[in-house]
Amino acid sequence: MRERSVSSRPAARVSARERSVLRRGGVLRRAGVLLAMTGMVSGCSWIFGTDDGNKGDEKPVLSLFGSGSKMISGYVGNVVADEPQAALAAMTVLQRGGNAADAATALGLALSVTLPSRASLGAGGACVAWRPGDRDGGKAFLFLPTGDAPADRVQGTTTHADRPASVPMLARGLFLMQLSHGSVDFAELTRPAIQLARNGIEVGSQLAADLDVVQSPLLADEGARKIFARPNGTVMKAGDMLLQRYLAGTLERIRSAGPGDLYTGSLAQVVISANATTGAGLTMAGIRTSVPVVATPLTVTVGEMQVSFVPPPADGGYGMAVAWKALMNGRSSSDLGRQAVAGWRASEAKASVGTLTARAQSLLQSGHIPTGGGSSLPDLPASTSFAVADRKGGAVACAISMDNLFGTGRVAGSTGIVLGASALHRPRPILPAAIAHEDGRFLAAATASGQADAADAAAAALANGLQGQIKATTSMGRANVIACRGGLPGDGRRCQSWVDPRGSGYGTGATQD
What we know:
By secondary structure, this protein is an alpha+beta fold. Helix content is 33%, strand content 17%. The protein is built from 17 helices and 16 strands. The two termini are 41 Å apart.
């Protein structure tokens, strides 16, 4: 295929409206409540959508489950994720008329309950969002794990910081993404996570595997032991019932007071007061000033198709772009993404997101990609990923990490939040995510986990998904892909979901008739 030149654009700014809402931690009320979760189709291979019988149903959705709400018939969209119960939450939002950003938000919050080893409220990450009508590649939302907290003049010097923690970034990042691209009240989207935490879940195979890896250090923390230990003192196994009532209370507080309460309100005070037992070293100044960044995605154009990738400092998107571009030009790519990330990190200098994005875009344009050799990457933190596409062609792809399996391994007091690890003391995770689109139509979304293999796995999944055939291509990478070869809006029967059969992920594409 002929490849067009790749343009370079500065990072997008947060609007005055978004800054105002973030500052006061408020929520734009769009009404309603979210209760039930139904209709997921699981699997380790392709899941096909069905025809869209709702071409005339274009009224805005004001409430997902309030008065006058209804289930949508026909094709509603696709969801792929590493954890099935969270995927179910997202599918329900689509079935009730929510869009991709709404569903992705519900999914991310649900992961804080079902997969806290990789995506608790203490986690950070990166998302790219796109919808028909976006002519600039959509938007990227960066809410990466933070470093050690700065000093607070009022709070004074923190002591006993033996497990430095990242500021909990997940809620703030998802809120900003949903504020920009969502269609309903953020408060509604907390309901599935609240239900899961309060009523209990069956421990899934991925969470059980993660618990088995870190059981001794994790259970050394009293807060973690109360959540994740069996009565006999061993960690929970797959199929055990996991109740998280403290976390349910925190999510309920976020629902009623807005996510800002976790950064400037009573929840923030609880997190800070737990420093003595968590050794997190968090400060109110650090929590208050850690805000997500809205950025212009990296873009690569091939023919009439454009792909939007999360930009640096989420350099997994850069590595994914390098590997995908090579594949589309007919080159074999087993570890080009890994090498590109290593080269980027070897030469990376401190700069604004806009400057980093422009530099990465320029390198992609030139084709001269510095490499550091895949072996130069150290052992990287675990992560998880997911993507959502709705029936109107909106899409979101995200990758999330605690910067260590179970982060610091400690729970922030009565919040029930497993704290993420400070990025200052750990190598950054590779967080790839991308969305392909052409002439105002969604074509595909791909993302992946798998430490150093993540960028290459995501790139291969995207390339193969656009061709209608996907297979596992790396030893560690676990990709999630949605591909609609006919494009969306359009015929949902041509949309397919794929999750790596070696993992425990689920793809959804069921309809409610």
